[in-house]
Specification:
The protein is elongated. The N and C termini lie far apart (67 Å). It has 144 residues and is mainly alpha-helical. The protein has 5 helices and 2 strands, in the order H-H-H-H-H-E-E. The model has no long low-confidence stretch (mean pLDDT 85). The chain has 2 domains: 55 residues, DNA polymerase, domain 1 (Orthogonal Bundle), CATH 1.10.150.20; 52 residues, no CATH class. Helix 3 packs antiparallel against helix 4. The chain has a two-stranded antiparallel ribbon with strand order 1-2.
């Protein structure tokens, strides 16, 4: 059997530490993992590993969505290639990113509940004063 020739560490999500724990439990290959009792795996390890065992046994544990659900949060962000010193230098990029976020909202048929803007200094320039101001505005309610 093909699975008997593949070490358990080759399974997605099984890292070095978990591989060592599985080996200690007598599970050395993917075939061993597939033959394991999913309930016992969950008790001793994690629900994620239990699902992996069930998937190896042919039981689908992941509900595949035909269309992703609408995002609860949309972010349009940018890092600048050079230092920015004035509000005028920030104005156009902020307008551009607000327009991009609005396009994403329209595409999924959503409306904003709030809009937030934040800026922060370059954290890799420790010699500079550090700050990260933000401002959030709640959307005007259409219920009234």
């Amino acid at each position: 059997m093909l699975l008997a020739g593949i070490e358990v560490r080759e399974v997605w999500g099984v890292g070095g530490r978990l591989s060592a724990q599985l080996t200690d439990a007598g599970i050395r290959t993917v075939a061993d993992l597939r033959a394991a009792d999913p309930r016992r795996i969950r008790e001793r390890f994690t629900v994620v590993l239990e699902r992996t065992v069930r998937e190896l046994q042919g039981v689908s544990c992941i509900d595949i969505e035909t269309a992703p659900p609408p995002k609860q949060q949309i972010i349009a962000s940018r890092s600048f290639g050079a230092q920015v010193f004035s509000l005028q230098e920030l104005a156009e990029p902020i307008r551009m990113h607000m327009a991009r976020a609005a396009e994403k909202l329209r595409r999924q048929g959503s409306a904003a509940g709030a809009v937030g803007v934040w800026i922060e200094t370059n954290r890799f320039r420790a010699q500079d004063a550090q700050y990260s101001p933000s401002y959030t505005v709640a959307a005007a309610s259409s219920h009234g």
